[in-house]
Design a protein that fits this description.
Largest sheet: 2 strands, antiparallel
Order of helices and strands: HHEE
Helix content: 10-25%
Shape: globular
Distance between the termini: 18 Å
Number of helices: 2
Strand order of the largest sheet: 1-2
Structural class: little secondary structure
Oligomer: single chain
Number of strands: 2
Strand content: 5-15%
Length: about 80
């Protein structure tokens, strides 16, 4: 999520996605993001992932992923 503080925003690690952007007209089977996901496995091609509440998330974040993970957020000093 974006940070309103430009100093901390400039220090954040950026995730650079690789792979093909899926076609909105002809999306891939299963997970529509799998062509760009580093965690994609066979199940991602055959089954669309359900939208689930992240178990460790106290702010209501949800993810549609077969392999969701919760990122730990550490406050900047």
């Amino acid at each position: 999520m974006p940070d309103a503080d430009p100093d901390s925003e400039s220090r954040r690690e950026r995730i650079r996605l690789t792979g093909d952007v899926p076609s909105p007209i002809d999306p891939p089977s299963g997970c529509r993001f799998r062509t760009r996901c580093w965690k994609a496995q066979d199940i991602c091609a055959s089954q669309e992932p359900p939208l689930v509440q992240l178990s460790d998330s106290t702010d209501g974040h949800q993810a549609a992923c077969h392999f969701p993970e919760v990122k730990q957020v550490v406050a900047a000093e």
